[in-house]
Specification:
The chain contains five helices and 16 strands. It is an alpha+beta fold and 321 residues long. The chain is elongated and about 120 Å long.
């Protein structure tokens, strides 16, 4: 007797089980991709920071000094200037605004000045960054102290202030105040008291390129391969040419973006600069006798996220002397 052929096939239940397994594995895979990418970017950023710190240490060992970090464009004392506020001390109240328009003054003690308006023009290392034109328009740096807003590059076109003398030479009949206002070139002439680094944006970009070559040496090639060294010349000029706006305007804040109108847009420093693996510029500043190389980390904020959370714990920083 001839038996009919038998065909091997899955039952409906078996097919459903297989589909469930595939869906579970796909879900696990898709969930793991962001975590794996985040770990990769963090590792690359740690490598970038280590190479920059090694280059700085090598430079110090060879010459006894490093190319001094320059003010970040957000911390420039030349106009246009960003918005800063005070921390509480014997002269200022917490949150008091620093004058963003008048000529900056540097003075040993703000109480030496006769007027509160002049005291508002004093720049202090403890001043706290708030934004460019409105508080919170650059979340990455909100809450950072002025002294922390420095990076490897040129200060050309970024510094302009009148450095007033110590009290003693101008003591008014035993008072504890400097010569009466105005605190300008009429009383404190440029040739003795003006501290400035004049120059064009092109001058600053050329000088930054030279200083980065000097500071990084052969490490610059390694950093370029890691995507850490970027020389931005395109995009729309912003903040007096110190920044370049690139890419589309998006409705929500993202890493490396600042507020433009009602949206957010990616920015870069004009000319050469160092960036972490997420595309945020790297800061280099002195802290307790050490030179720190710092990345904002995964969340893209150095001090406070737009939601108000503490972002400092996410930062990546070099260690050592």
């Amino acid at each position: 007797m001839v038996r009919p052929p038998r065909f091997l096939a899955f039952t409906l239940v078996e097919l459903l089980v297989v589909m469930a397994i595939i869906a579970t594995l796909a879900g696990l895979l898709l969930t793991g991709i962001p975590a794996a990418r985040s770990a990769m970017l963090r590792a690359r950023t740690a490598g970038i920071i280590a190479k920059v710190k090694t280059a700085i240490d090598t430079r110090v060992a060879q010459s006894g000094s490093i190319a001094s970090p320059a003010p970040h464009p957000f911390a420039a004392t030349a106009v246009p200037r960003s918005l800063f506020s005070r921390v509480a001390d014997a002269v200022y109240t917490a949150g008091q605004a620093v004058d963003p328009t008048g000529e900056c003054l540097e003075v040993g003690n703000p109480t030496w000045l006769f007027t509160s308006q002049a005291q508002g023009r004093v720049v202090l290392n403890t001043d706290v960054f708030q934004g460019i034109s409105a508080a919170g328009d650059v979340p990455a740096f909100t809450g950072m102290a002025r002294r922390q807003l420095t990076m490897l590059g040129s200060a050309t076109g970024l510094v302009a202030l009148r450095k007033l003398p110590d009290l003693a030479p101008w003591n008014n009949n035993g008072s504890n105040q400097l010569k009466s206002p105005p605190y300008d070139l009429s009383a404190y002439p440029d040739n003795r008291y003006l501290v400035a680094t004049p120059g064009t944006d092109d001058d600053r970009m050329r000088e930054s390129d030279r200083l980065l070559d000097l500071a990084l040496g052969a490490t610059k090639e390694d950093l370029t391969r890691l995507g850490a060294f970027h020389d931005e010349r395109g995009g729309a000029s912003y903040l007096g040419g110190r920044l370049r706006l690139i890419g589309p305007i998006v409705p929500r804040w993202k890493h490396g973006h600042l507020k433009v109108g009602s949206g957010w847009q990616r920015y870069r420093i004009s000319g050469p600069a160092l960036y972490d693996a997420w595309g945020q510029e790297i800061l280099v500043y002195a802290d307790a006798g050490r030179t720190l190389v710092v990345s904002a980390g995964k969340d893209g904020c150095f001090r406070s996220t737009p939601a108000g959370a503490d972002a400092a714990r996410d930062n990546l920083a070099s260690s050592g002397e």
